[in-house]
Protein backbone atom coordinates (compact mmCIF):
# COMPACT_ATOMS: atom_id res chain seq x y z
CA UNK A 1 0.00 0.00 0.00
CA UNK A 2 2.94 2.27 -0.38
CA UNK A 3 3.56 2.59 3.34
CA UNK A 4 6.22 1.03 5.53
CA UNK A 5 4.48 1.42 8.83
CA UNK A 6 7.26 0.29 11.12
CA UNK A 7 9.81 2.50 9.37
CA UNK A 8 7.52 5.53 9.46
CA UNK A 9 6.66 5.02 13.09
CA UNK A 10 10.28 4.49 14.13
CA UNK A 11 11.41 7.58 12.26
CA UNK A 12 8.70 9.73 13.81
CA UNK A 13 9.27 8.38 17.31
CA UNK A 14 13.03 8.87 17.00
CA UNK A 15 12.61 12.41 15.73
CA UNK A 16 10.18 13.39 18.46
CA UNK A 17 11.88 11.60 21.34
CA UNK A 18 14.36 14.40 22.05
CA UNK A 19 11.73 17.13 22.28
CA UNK A 20 8.78 15.17 23.70
CA UNK A 21 6.63 16.77 21.01
CA UNK A 22 4.86 13.52 20.37
CA UNK A 23 3.85 13.34 24.01
CA UNK A 24 2.56 16.91 23.98
CA UNK A 25 0.49 16.22 20.87
CA UNK A 26 -1.01 13.10 22.43
CA UNK A 27 -1.75 15.07 25.59
CA UNK A 28 -3.87 17.51 23.60
CA UNK A 29 -5.57 14.76 21.61
CA UNK A 30 -6.43 12.78 24.75
CA UNK A 31 -7.78 15.90 26.45
CA UNK A 32 -9.99 16.77 23.47
CA UNK A 33 -11.31 13.21 23.13
CA UNK A 34 -12.04 13.00 26.86
CA UNK A 35 -13.84 16.37 26.80
CA UNK A 36 -16.08 15.26 23.95
CA UNK A 37 -17.67 12.49 25.98
CA UNK A 38 -17.15 10.61 29.19
CA UNK A 39 -13.49 10.60 30.33
CA UNK A 40 -13.70 6.79 30.40
CA UNK A 41 -12.34 4.83 27.42
CA UNK A 42 -14.86 2.04 27.98
CA UNK A 43 -17.74 4.40 27.22
CA UNK A 44 -15.88 6.85 24.96
CA UNK A 45 -14.77 5.11 21.78
CA UNK A 46 -12.86 8.13 20.46
CA UNK A 47 -10.83 8.26 23.66
CA UNK A 48 -10.21 4.52 23.48
CA UNK A 49 -8.76 4.85 19.97
CA UNK A 50 -6.42 7.66 21.05
CA UNK A 51 -5.24 5.67 24.08
CA UNK A 52 -4.54 2.61 21.93
CA UNK A 53 -2.47 4.77 19.60
CA UNK A 54 -0.66 6.39 22.51
CA UNK A 55 0.23 2.96 23.87
CA UNK A 56 2.06 2.02 20.67
CA UNK A 57 4.17 5.17 21.01
CA UNK A 58 4.93 4.45 24.67
CA UNK A 59 3.35 7.69 25.87
CA UNK A 60 3.96 7.82 29.64
CA UNK A 61 0.99 7.03 31.86
CA UNK A 62 1.54 10.29 33.74
CA UNK A 63 0.85 12.31 30.59
CA UNK A 64 -2.26 10.26 29.79
CA UNK A 65 -3.60 10.60 33.34
CA UNK A 66 -2.86 14.34 33.41
CA UNK A 67 -4.80 14.92 30.19
CA UNK A 68 -7.80 12.90 31.38
CA UNK A 69 -7.77 14.56 34.80
CA UNK A 70 -7.69 17.94 33.09
CA UNK A 71 -10.75 16.97 31.05
CA UNK A 72 -12.53 15.82 34.21
CA UNK A 73 -11.70 18.99 36.08
CA UNK A 74 -11.54 22.65 35.29
CA UNK A 75 -9.94 22.40 31.87
CA UNK A 76 -11.75 24.95 29.72
CA UNK A 77 -9.54 25.12 26.64
CA UNK A 78 -11.53 24.85 23.44
CA UNK A 79 -9.87 23.13 20.51
CA UNK A 80 -11.07 22.95 16.92
CA UNK A 81 -10.33 20.07 14.59
CA UNK A 82 -9.25 21.57 11.28
CA UNK A 83 -7.97 19.90 8.14
CA UNK A 84 -5.71 21.60 5.61
CA UNK A 85 -4.88 20.22 2.17
CA UNK A 86 -2.07 21.08 -0.16
CA UNK A 87 0.52 20.12 -2.73
CA UNK A 88 4.24 19.45 -2.42
CA UNK A 89 7.05 18.74 -4.92
CA UNK A 90 6.28 16.69 -8.04
CA UNK A 91 2.53 17.00 -7.59
CA UNK A 92 2.58 15.22 -4.24
CA UNK A 93 -0.55 15.54 -2.13
CA UNK A 94 -0.57 16.33 1.58
CA UNK A 95 -3.29 16.37 4.24
CA UNK A 96 -2.66 18.11 7.55
CA UNK A 97 -4.95 17.44 10.51
CA UNK A 98 -4.74 19.90 13.38
CA UNK A 99 -6.16 20.52 16.83
CA UNK A 100 -5.96 24.20 17.63
CA UNK A 101 -7.14 26.72 20.19
CA UNK A 102 -6.08 29.57 17.91
CA UNK A 103 -7.08 29.34 14.26
CA UNK A 104 -5.38 32.64 13.54
CA UNK A 105 -2.09 31.02 14.49
CA UNK A 106 -2.55 27.66 12.81
CA UNK A 107 -3.63 28.52 9.27
CA UNK A 108 -0.76 30.97 8.57
CA UNK A 109 1.77 28.53 10.08
CA UNK A 110 0.60 25.68 7.85
CA UNK A 111 0.56 27.93 4.78
CA UNK A 112 4.07 29.16 5.56
CA UNK A 113 5.38 25.59 5.86
CA UNK A 114 3.99 24.76 2.42
CA UNK A 115 5.35 27.93 0.83
CA UNK A 116 8.86 27.61 2.28
CA UNK A 117 9.18 24.08 0.86
CA UNK A 118 7.97 25.04 -2.60
CA UNK A 119 4.47 23.71 -2.03
CA UNK A 120 1.07 25.37 -1.96
CA UNK A 121 -2.12 25.22 0.03
CA UNK A 122 -5.20 23.91 -1.70
CA UNK A 123 -8.89 24.46 -1.05
CA UNK A 124 -10.92 22.07 1.07
CA UNK A 125 -11.49 18.83 -0.84
CA UNK A 126 -8.72 19.40 -3.37
CA UNK A 127 -6.67 16.49 -2.00
CA UNK A 128 -8.74 14.45 0.47
CA UNK A 129 -10.80 12.77 -2.27
CA UNK A 130 -7.65 10.88 -3.30
CA UNK A 131 -7.29 9.32 0.17
CA UNK A 132 -9.28 6.70 2.06
CA UNK A 133 -9.84 6.75 5.82
CA UNK A 134 -8.39 3.46 7.07
CA UNK A 135 -7.80 1.53 10.28
CA UNK A 136 -4.28 0.08 10.38
CA UNK A 137 -3.45 -2.46 13.07
CA UNK A 138 -0.25 -4.50 13.24
CA UNK A 139 0.90 -7.35 15.45
CA UNK A 140 3.93 -9.55 15.92
CA UNK A 141 4.05 -13.23 16.75
CA UNK A 142 1.44 -14.36 14.24
CA UNK A 143 1.87 -15.50 10.65
CA UNK A 144 -0.05 -14.02 7.74
CA UNK A 145 -2.14 -17.19 7.44
CA UNK A 146 -2.91 -17.19 11.16
CA UNK A 147 -4.10 -13.59 11.07
CA UNK A 148 -6.21 -14.23 7.98
CA UNK A 149 -7.84 -17.22 9.67
CA UNK A 150 -8.40 -15.21 12.84
CA UNK A 151 -10.15 -12.39 10.98
CA UNK A 152 -12.33 -14.89 9.10
CA UNK A 153 -13.29 -16.71 12.28
CA UNK A 154 -14.12 -13.42 13.98
CA UNK A 155 -16.16 -12.28 10.95
CA UNK A 156 -14.22 -9.02 10.76
CA UNK A 157 -14.46 -7.13 7.48
CA UNK A 158 -10.94 -6.20 6.35
CA UNK A 159 -9.55 -4.63 3.19
CA UNK A 160 -6.17 -6.30 3.17
CA UNK A 161 -3.68 -8.20 5.33
CA UNK A 162 0.03 -7.98 4.55
CA UNK A 163 3.38 -8.91 6.06
CA UNK A 164 5.82 -6.10 6.77
CA UNK A 165 9.16 -6.81 8.37
CA UNK A 166 8.31 -8.62 11.61
CA UNK A 167 4.67 -7.52 11.69
CA UNK A 168 1.42 -8.59 10.10
CA UNK A 169 -0.64 -5.53 9.19
CA UNK A 170 -4.43 -5.49 8.92
CA UNK A 171 -6.10 -2.74 6.87
CA UNK A 172 -9.80 -2.21 7.52
CA UNK A 173 -12.61 0.33 7.46
CA UNK A 174 -12.35 2.84 10.31
CA UNK A 175 -15.47 1.46 12.00
CA UNK A 176 -13.75 -1.94 12.20
CA UNK A 177 -10.87 -0.62 14.34
CA UNK A 178 -12.21 -2.02 17.60
CA UNK A 179 -13.47 -5.23 15.97
CA UNK A 180 -9.97 -6.01 14.65
CA UNK A 181 -8.40 -5.30 18.02
CA UNK A 182 -11.00 -7.38 19.82
CA UNK A 183 -10.35 -10.32 17.49
CA UNK A 184 -6.66 -10.15 18.37
CA UNK A 185 -7.39 -9.79 22.09
CA UNK A 186 -9.64 -12.84 22.02
CA UNK A 187 -6.65 -14.71 20.57
CA UNK A 188 -4.47 -13.54 23.46
CA UNK A 189 -2.74 -10.63 21.70
CA UNK A 190 -3.00 -7.41 23.68
CA UNK A 191 0.12 -5.57 22.45
CA UNK A 192 0.02 -3.88 19.05
CA UNK A 193 2.93 -2.72 16.91
CA UNK A 194 0.61 -0.28 15.16
CA UNK A 195 -2.87 0.97 16.01
CA UNK A 196 -3.79 3.90 13.79
CA UNK A 197 -6.75 5.57 12.17
CA UNK A 198 -5.16 7.14 9.14
CA UNK A 199 -5.66 8.41 5.61
CA UNK A 200 -4.14 6.22 2.90
CA UNK A 201 -3.56 7.50 -0.59
CA UNK A 202 -5.25 5.69 -3.45
CA UNK A 203 -2.16 6.18 -5.59
CA UNK A 204 1.43 6.93 -4.66
CA UNK A 205 4.11 8.94 -6.40
CA UNK A 206 7.90 8.83 -6.23
CA UNK A 207 10.19 11.80 -6.03
CA UNK A 208 12.15 12.06 -9.32
CA UNK A 209 15.38 13.27 -7.75
CA UNK A 210 17.29 13.51 -4.50
CA UNK A 211 16.68 17.25 -4.55
CA UNK A 212 12.91 16.93 -4.77
CA UNK A 213 12.95 14.20 -2.14
CA UNK A 214 14.90 16.46 0.24
CA UNK A 215 12.46 19.28 -0.48
CA UNK A 216 9.53 17.01 0.29
CA UNK A 217 11.10 15.82 3.55
CA UNK A 218 11.64 19.46 4.50
CA UNK A 219 7.94 20.12 3.98
CA UNK A 220 6.80 17.14 6.06
CA UNK A 221 9.28 17.91 8.84
CA UNK A 222 8.15 21.55 8.94
CA UNK A 223 4.50 20.57 9.15
CA UNK A 224 5.04 17.90 11.81
CA UNK A 225 7.03 20.36 13.91
CA UNK A 226 4.09 22.77 14.15
CA UNK A 227 2.52 22.92 17.59
CA UNK A 228 -1.06 22.44 16.38
CA UNK A 229 -0.43 19.66 13.85
CA UNK A 230 -1.50 16.20 14.96
CA UNK A 231 -1.15 14.15 11.78
CA UNK A 232 0.34 14.60 8.31
CA UNK A 233 -0.68 12.25 5.51
CA UNK A 234 0.75 12.16 2.00
CA UNK A 235 0.99 10.08 -1.17
CA UNK A 236 4.77 9.79 -1.55
CA UNK A 237 6.40 6.37 -1.60
CA UNK A 238 8.42 5.65 1.51
CA UNK A 239 11.95 4.30 1.47
CA UNK A 240 12.65 1.04 3.29
From TrEMBL:
Choose any GO biological process term that the UniProt entry carries and state it. Answer: regulation of DNA-templated transcription
Q: Please provide, in alphabetical order, the Gene Ontology terms of the cellular component aspect for this entry.
A: cytosol
Span of domain TACO1/YebC-like N-terminal: 3-73
**Coiled coil location:** 209-239
Supply the InterPro entries for this chain: Integrase-like_N (IPR017856), TACO1_YebC-like_2nd/3rd_dom (IPR048300), TACO1_YebC_N (IPR049083), Transcrip_reg_TACO1-like (IPR002876), Transcrip_reg_TACO1-like_dom3 (IPR026564), Transcrip_reg_TACO1_YeeN (IPR026562), YebC-like (IPR029072)
Spell out the subcellular localization from the entry. Answer: Cytoplasm
Q: Per the annotation, which location comes first and is thus the protein's main one?
A: cytoplasm
Alphabetically ordered keywords of this record: Coiled coil, Cytoplasm, DNA-binding, Transcription, Transcription regulation
- Cite the TACO1/YebC-like second and third domain residue spans from the record: 79-236
> Where does the source fall among the domains of life?
Bacteria
What GO molecular function annotation could you give as one example from this UniProt entry? Answer: DNA binding
Query: What family is it from?
Result: Belongs to the TACO1 family. YeeN subfamily.
PANTHER family for this protein = TRANSLATIONAL ACTIVATOR OF CYTOCHROME C OXIDASE 1
The molecule here is called: Probable transcriptional regulatory protein D3P09_21820
Amino acid sequence: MGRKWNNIKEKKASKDANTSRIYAKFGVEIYVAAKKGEPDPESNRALKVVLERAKTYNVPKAIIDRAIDKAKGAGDENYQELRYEGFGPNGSMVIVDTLTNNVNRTAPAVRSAFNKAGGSMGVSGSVAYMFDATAVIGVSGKSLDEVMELMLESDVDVRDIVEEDESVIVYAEPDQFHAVQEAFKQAGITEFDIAELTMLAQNYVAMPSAESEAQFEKLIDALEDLEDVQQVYHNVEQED
